[in-house]
UniProtKB/TrEMBL annotation:
Stored SUPFAM superfamilies: NAD(P)-binding Rossmann-fold domains (SSF51735)
NCBIfam families recorded: PRK06179.1
Regions annotated as coiled coil: none
Sorted UniProt keywords: Oxidoreductase
UniProt KW Oxidoreductase keyword: yes
Name of the protein this chain belongs to: Oxidoreductase
Family according to the record: Belongs to the short-chain dehydrogenases/reductases (SDR) family.
Tagged with keyword Mitochondrion: no
Lineage: Bacteria, Bacillati, Actinomycetota, Actinomycetes, Pseudonocardiales
InterPro entries (UniProt xref): NAD(P)-bd_dom_sf, SDR_fam, SDR_oxidoreductase
Amino acid sequence: MTTNKPVALVTGASSGIGKAAALALVGAGYDVIGTSRDASKAAPLGGVTFVDLDVVSDESVDAAVGQVMERFGRIDVLVNNAGFGAGGAAEESSMAQDQRVFDINVFGVIRMTKAVLPHMRAQRGGRIVNISSIVGFIPVPYMAVYAASKHAVEGYSESLDHEVREYGVRVLLVEPSWTNTSFEANAAQPDQPLEVYAQHRRAFDKRMAAAVKAGDDPAVVAKAIVAAATDAKPKLRYPAGAQTGRVHTMRRLVPSRMFDQQIRKLNELPA
C-alpha cells in the first residue's frame, strides 16, 4: 500500500507531546504512524496507525521502519520524541542509570535517524524533527545527565543538518520549555541517593513539579513540530513557548557571570 499523502512517523506517540504531535500532524494532512513500546495498549487516536517500537533496540527500530515503508512506501517526517527523564545530583546515579538515559534520549534518536535517513535520501526529501528541550542549551542543577543528553541531541542535530541538506533532507530541533505532561512524574529518581544532596534534591523536585503543573499545554509544542515539518524555509531551532524564546535571548545577551548567578538563584543554591 502507498499513499498520496505525506507520511509522518512519531516516536512515543501514546501520550504527552508525542500524542499531541501525532494528532496535529493528522490535522495538517499527514498519514501518521505513532509508536509505542506496546502498541496494543495504546489508546486509539483518530487517523494514527500504531506500531511497536523500542528505540533502544536495533532490531525493533529496523522492524518498525520496515513496516512503515512496506505499508506506506515513504517517510517524509520523522519526529524523534521518545524520551526518558532523570533527576537528582549527578553523583547519585549509577553508570547503568546514566547509560539508560543516553540510550533512549541520544542513541534512540541516532538509531531512528540511521534507519530512516537512507529512505529520505533516496526520495530526495524529508524532515527529521528532534525534540530537544530548554535544558538542551542551559545548565540545570540536579538534572545534569538529562541536560547532557539534550545537549548531545542539539549538537548531533545541528551537525547532521549540514551533512544532509544537499540531499533534500533537513534535521531540525524543537525546544519545549516545561510542559504539562506526566513526563516529570515518570522521571527516574537516583538509584544511589546520597544524604549530602538530599535537601537540594527535594527542593528541586518541588520546583520541577510546580513548573510542570504550570507548564505549556502539549499542543503548544505540537504546533512547533508541525511548523518544523511544513515550513517552506525551515529554521534550525523552533523554541516552543514564550519561556524558551526568552531564555535563548538571555543566554545570548546576558554576560556569562550574570547568567551563572541567575541559575544559582533560581535553583536556590548559595552564591
